[in-house]
Amino acid sequence: MNKSKVFGSTLIIAGTTVGAGMLALPLASAGIGFSTSLLLMLCLWGLMAFTALLMVELHQFAESDATLHTLAHTILGTKGKWIASFAVMFLFYALCSAYIAGGGAQFNQRISDISGIELNGQITTLLFTLLVAGVVTIGTHSVDKVNRVLFGLKLIAMVLVLSFLAPNITSQYLMSMPLQQGLIVAAIPVVFTSFGFHGSIPSIVRYLDGDVRSLRKVMIIGSALPLVIYVFWQSVTLGVISQEQLLSDTSLGALLVSLSQTVHQSNLSVIVGVFADLALLTSFIGVSLGLFEFMGDSLSSKLGNGKRVKTAAITFLPPLGFALFYPQGFITALGYAAIALSVLAILLPTIMVYKVRYTDFSVEPQGTEATYQVLGGSKALFLAGSVGVFIIAIQILISVGLLPSLG
């Protein structure tokens, strides 16, 4: 397998993961403290890496260009196909709506800072969407190239931010304990969503021609990189800002202002802003690529000529419309993503793998190599599925007011 493709695929997974969720992590963790948030991140990373490998196992039973839509139909039948389709569309459209709303606003601010020209917010949102749509429509190869540059810039910005903030870490802040037990439970959906990249897996499988060995490496390393980044990010954000200050205003803008004011460095606010831009942009590109491939596979027989352009329209116009009419919907759209992500990344993979392994499943794996099977057996599948149901229940309880909201 081409090492360049494996490297690029790893960065797509990492770039998709390290997005808007990263910016929400300090806010979600403000009431529970660094050590508790670290434990949550380790557990939920392990869960998401496990289910990603389950997806690799499942893709052995379909062509390399199959999406979750195709897999669910092959393994679970028509009902499974519709459940998968709804979960994917709900998650992807919610995330794309959030990224377009947040990215359009940040794009507008960046143009204003650089040129001094004040543009209409709807115009910059449209331009931002067209730029990403153009890259995604060309294909995964273009996403790979663009994402490498953006991910490299994001790492540089992150290192600069960490270097400015690290000397100001207060150990007492890192020793803060949870203010109440309910906040620990309420933080789980946000931390869980911060490790979400599963929607991009079918695109990576297709890009790597279904090579299982390469895919295993990509899933493990690609998901572990964000974990390392998150640990450093949480240590500096929770270490330089007190619990009281974080909880006094749980907005993203307030977080960025607090970080900038902590260190008396004139360029820090600009660097933090650029880092936030790149974190959101790389995640948006990865998520929109997954939605583009999914819609193209689902509607392939109905699109006819100009398939990629029509698929791009179906992919980007609905979330663009949401972002234009509800520009404040960034947090709202992200809030419910955990429910769809639980179905997409946990429940469906565990149920499908169980059926393939332990029932009379008639479809043979593609290729001649020995079938890859993730370790853990039925107990691991049951445990993972139970956590998925638990996360959905948490978000529902938050929505009805029985658990504290994080913002």
UniProtKB/TrEMBL annotation:
Gene3D superfamilies hit by this protein: Amino acid/polyamine transporter I (1.20.1740.10)
Pfam families per the UniProt record, alphabetical: Trp_Tyr_perm
Membrane topology of this protein: Multi-pass membrane protein
Predominant subcellular localization, coarse grouping: membrane
Keywords, in A-Z order: Amino-acid transport, Cell inner membrane, Cell membrane, Membrane, Transmembrane, Transmembrane helix, Transport
Membrane-spanning intervals of the chain: 6-27, 39-62, 82-102, 123-143, 149-170, 182-201, 221-241, 268-289, 333-354, 380-403
Subcellular location: Cell inner membrane
Superkingdom of the organism of origin: Bacteria
Signal peptide as annotated in the record: none
NCBIfam families the record matches: araaP (TIGR00837)
Family stated for the protein in its record: Belongs to the amino acid/polyamine transporter 2 family. Mtr/TnaB/TyrP permease subfamily.
Record's function text: Involved in transporting aromatic amino acids across the cytoplasmic membrane.
Protein name per Swiss-Prot or TrEMBL: Aromatic amino acid permease
Species assigned in the record: Vibrio echinoideorum
Species classification: Bacteria, Pseudomonadati, Pseudomonadota, Gammaproteobacteria, Vibrionales
